[in-house]
Amino acid sequence: MKPAHIRIQELQKEVTNLAELRDEAKSEMDSNMDEALYYRKKASEAEVRMYARQEEIDARLAKITELEEQEVLVHAATA
User: Fold this and answer.
1) What is the C-alpha separation between 20 and 23, in angstroms, rounded?
2) Which residues 6+ apart lie within 8 Å of 2 measured at CB?
3) 3-class secondary structure for the chain?
């Protein structure tokens, strides 16, 4: 069995190594959280653009329908 002071030194080294690993994991977590926030914001912006484009599409489809109905009325009146 190892003397207590040697075992204490080994455990202190393990604590130091584990603290370094913990700090690396925290740094990675912080970086990933920043990226997650960035991409969440980008996704939200894209969603807003998507709905805005859909509204434009709907408006143009409504205009097409209106013009087609007018065209039918004009043809019916001239027939």
Assistant:
1) 5
2) 10
3) CCCHHHHHHHHHHHHHHHHHHHHHHHHHHHHHHHHHHHHHHHHHHHHHHHHHHHHHHHHHHHHHHHHHHHHHHHHHHHC
pTM for this model (two decimals)? 0.62
What are the contacts of 15-20 at 24+ separation with CB within 8 A?
none
Tens digit of each residue's pLDDT (9 = 90 or more) over 34-55: 999 999 999 999 999 999 999 9
Q: How far apart are alpha carbons 43 and 56 in whole angstroms?
A: 20
